Amino acid sequence: MTMGPDCGHRRLAGKDRSPDRDHRSVPVPLSRTGFRRLIRHETWIADNRRLARLRARFKTGIVTGRPRSEAEYALRRFDADSLFDVLVTLEETPGELRKPSPFGIQLAMSRLDATAGVYFGDSVDDMTAASAPALRRSAF
Questions:
Q1: How far is CA 115 from CA 7, 25, 53, 64, 134, in A?
Q2: If you write DSSP's letter for every residue of 55-103 in order, what string do you get?
Q3: Other residues' Cβ atoms within 10 Å of the Cβ of residue 63
Q4: Mean per-residue pLDDT for 85-95?
Q5: pLDDT of 140 above 70
Q6: What is the pTM of this model?
Q7: What whole-number distance in Å separates Cα of residue 17 and Cα of residue 136?
Q8: Sign of CA dihedral 42, 110, 51, 22
Q9: What are the tens digits of pLDDT across the range 7-53?
Q10: Kind and range of the H or E element at 50?
């Protein structure tokens, strides 16, 4: 749910989704060259209040192609680390089973003990991965 600095989704519904937390106070993982510089320019496109209301009623999870250290950094930076019950990351999905394969979503659903769900995504691969019969899908 983050977008890079050059992405056209930097603003959602005309509102800047800049972090409430000062990003300099969150330690940056050193997983890749240039990561320290680039991740600080990402923009959160989700509404945390809406996510909190959803989590109060439903189990929630994230399936991402990012390494765990990057995903956890982004969640902490945007004060969203407490809004999700499950996090499935790059390390948990073998190469051939990454999106657009539904494997990561199925793994998250298994960990959530869910038989049905709604999947929100921001790419064609997300929509393809969410084409399982037990899922409704929605694009950002």
A1: 34, 39, 21, 20, 7
A2: HHHS--EEE-SS-HHHHHHHHHHTT-TTS-SEEE-GGGS-GGGSTTSSH
A3: 26
A4: 95
A5: no
A6: 0.73
A7: 26
A8: negative
A9: 333 333 333 444 444 544 555 555 555 556 677 788 898 999 999 99
A10: helix 48-57
Strand partners, 86: 61
The domain segmentation of the chain, as residue ranges, is: 2-139
* Residue owning tokens 């959530």: 112
- Distance CA(14)–CA(70), nearest Å, equals 27
**Tokens matching residue 137:** 């899908």
* Fold for the domain defined by 2-139: Rossmann fold (3.40.50)
Nearest to 110 by CA among 132, 81, 137: 132
For 61-65, what is the mean pLDDT? 94
- Structure token digits, residue 25: 């106070």
Integer CA distances (angstroms), 49 to 14, 43, 52, 120, 130, in order? 17, 16, 5, 16, 24
Closest C-alpha among 72, 73, 18 to residue 47: 18
